[in-house]
Amino acid sequence: MNSILINGKKASQISVNDRGFQYGDGVFETIACKNRSLIYWNEHLQRLNNACSILKLAITDENTWLKDIEKIIKTHDEDQVIKLIYSRGEGQRGYKLPDPTEPVRIVMSSPMPVYTEDMYHQGVSLMVCKTPASSNSRLAGLKHLNKLDIVLARSEWSDETIFEGLMLDDYGNVIEGTMSNFFAVKNNSLYTPILKRSGVNGIIRQRIIDLAKNDNIVTQQIEIKLDKLLEMDEIFITNSLIGLCPVNQLESNRYKTGPITRHLMMKLQQDIKGREL
Fold this sequence. Notes:
Layout: E1 3-6, E2 9-10, H1 19-23, E3 26-34, E4 37-39, H2 41-55, H3 62-73, E5 80-87, E6 104-111, H4 117-122, E7 124-128, H5 148-154, E8 162-168, E9 174-177, E10 181-186, E11 189-193, H6 203-214, E12 219-222, H7 226-229, E13 234-239, E14 243-250, E15 253-254, H8 259-271, E16 274-276
Parallel strand pairs: 7-8, 7-14, 11-12
Antiparallel strand pairs: 1-2, 1-6, 3-4, 3-5, 4-16, 5-6, 8-9, 10-11, 10-13, 13-14, 14-15
């Protein structure tokens, strides 16, 4: 069952004049809440505030967010997915930034998805989407509310054996999954796409990069063409809910869960930290 707070009050509706609704003028974060602890809270808040600065959105202080989240999770005992949505709020017709208005702050809670042990032991299957990832160097890396490219990409499959779809940019570079970042391993070196024009700089993505470098694993952010990806030894995907999950198949290519993937799975489990409520 979902719970929703809008500007700290139980509600489920916003104005049709809200710029988040009309233009996608806002940002969001998706956070795992386990045992009443917000996993990587500091990193999520920092990314949210950084996006607000880039988009010229007023920054809401940490305590305000935490008070809203505490209200939400008090009604649930099980692990939850906490989604923060932050819109510029109501404005006049047209794209011009309105005079300072009250931003709309939404906190939503929903049950944590069930991820099976088989996923992490055996890996998951991926496909390549035809819908390209949108390119915009000023928005690259941000979790903004403009996600129509991902909506179209996710509509490309209904086969439940396919867990995720990879998206390429207009230049044929693999960027990310519809809900995940991805990594590849070749000759014990770790590769992940550079996000200069497209994609989201995921929290777990950055943790994996840092953990790998700390363990002296050669790590590069590069442009990766699809044909090069198909030659890789190992592939895995990451996001804030699944953590790190190996890939056993991409299209017709098969992969094993290799030593680098296993090592980084272990390191991530040791690294996970949260903000207790």
